[in-house]
């Protein structure tokens, strides 16, 4: 009897081991995604879902208008955002807030908000004085999807989905460790009870892994779509000129980490399902 059960036990242990490794990797990647742009310290500063570089915007306006541009950019890195204190060189957007930087390290962030919207156009306009914001609206309005409000709604929903998916991924990682505790007793048969305890624990892990995968991949898709939509501003030129507008949108490392987490969850899903269906050790 022991020899007949040993292959199943070995297979179950190997499967759950592989699943745990990839689930742990997914959870760690998701944690990094969550901390992105929550502050200007070294790790959060380097992780962003999207980046908007406006360092050339002032130069483009000066060339297009033929007049010097003054007061467009902020000179104080600690000046609060959304207060018409001047735009920053680069804006980086995370799940819960965004930050504006005068250089690679000097910057400030907005307050952290659950379900924060990705609205790059609104972020820029909120930092401009009235004359520059009116000019920018005149240039951009109707020429691209950069100012679209729908991308804000999509990314807000995506952030909630990613949070729920992260919780499910963590629970899937730890759920299988609960099987030694009494879950079900069948006809006072300890051996049969142990089978059901293990199977139910692995089934719960598999279900949570499925939910985590669905939520995270949906959130990643929504963020990717929103960033691609806002990138329509990259090809704009000033009216009747061939001068590039100088606003460049790109995806950040956070989006790559998010899709990496999706890959880890998909790989972990297979051994989770095998374990819940075949483990009998």
What is the fold's blueprint, element by element?
Blueprint: H1 2-35, H2 42-45, E1 50-53, H3 57-65, E2 90-93, E3 98-101, E4 107-109, H4 120-127, H5 130-140, H6 150-175, H7 190-230, E5 248-251, H8 253-278
Antiparallel strand pairs: 1-2, 1-5, 2-3, 3-4
Helix pairs in contact: 1-6, 1-8, 4-5, 6-7, 7-8
Structure commentary:
This is Actin cortical patch SUR7/pH-response regulator PalI. Pfam families: SUR7. Keywords: Membrane, Transmembrane, Transmembrane helix. The chain has 281 residues and is of the alpha+beta class. The chain has one domain: Up-down Bundle (Butyryl-CoA Dehydrogenase, subunit A, domain 3). The chain has a five-stranded antiparallel beta sheet. The radius of gyration is 25 Å and the shape is elongated. The N and C termini lie close together (11 Å).
Classify the fold: give the CATH topology: Butyryl-CoA Dehydrogenase, subunit A, domain 3
**What is the domain total for the residues?**
1
How many helices? The count is 8
Q: What is the annotated CATH architecture?
A: Up-down Bundle
